[in-house]
């Protein structure tokens, strides 16, 4: 059984936003992938197929209820849910780029761009919550003290060639 990845204390809306963009963006990307396949250009046909495949992977991970009649999707969804946020971010971003590179049309950029956005949202979730104002001030003061110490050490140094 897969163990859950440690979740950082994130706002509820951020988790649902990433899931919503993944599910909605995957459905839109799948439709635009079909639209992209109706062309003469071979690279755009391949890009449309890639976009549909990437959209299926994202939908099956984010909303397994959409693919409940496919046997392995439930296991795959549980496995992906157990992964850290940054791994989901990398997966979604890497999946979205080849279609845009192969056929940089409006339908490909918009469809794969939504998958890319889902990856960016998971990346932001992996970074975690921003520090408090007091923590930021303390970090800035420590950085200033270290820089002033370095400056005084360098100012008092003698030249190497005498």
TrEMBL record:
GO MF term list: calcium channel activity
Entries under InterPro entries matching the protein: TVP18/Ca-channel_flower (IPR019365)
Which biological process annotations from GO are given for this protein? vesicle-mediated transport
Q: What is its main location?
A: membrane
Query: Which keywords fit this entry according to its UniProt record?
Result: Calcium, Calcium channel, Calcium transport, Cell projection, Cytoplasmic vesicle, Ion channel, Ion transport, Membrane, Transmembrane, Transmembrane helix, Transport
Question: What is this entry's stated membrane topology?
Answer: Multi-pass membrane protein
An annotated GO cellular component of this protein is: synaptic vesicle membrane
Which proteins does it associate with, and in what oligomeric form?
A: Homomultimer. Associates with the dally/ magu complex.
Name of the protein in question: Calcium channel flower
Q: What is the lineage of its organism?
A: Eukaryota, Metazoa, Ecdysozoa, Arthropoda, Crustacea
The gene for this chain is flower-L
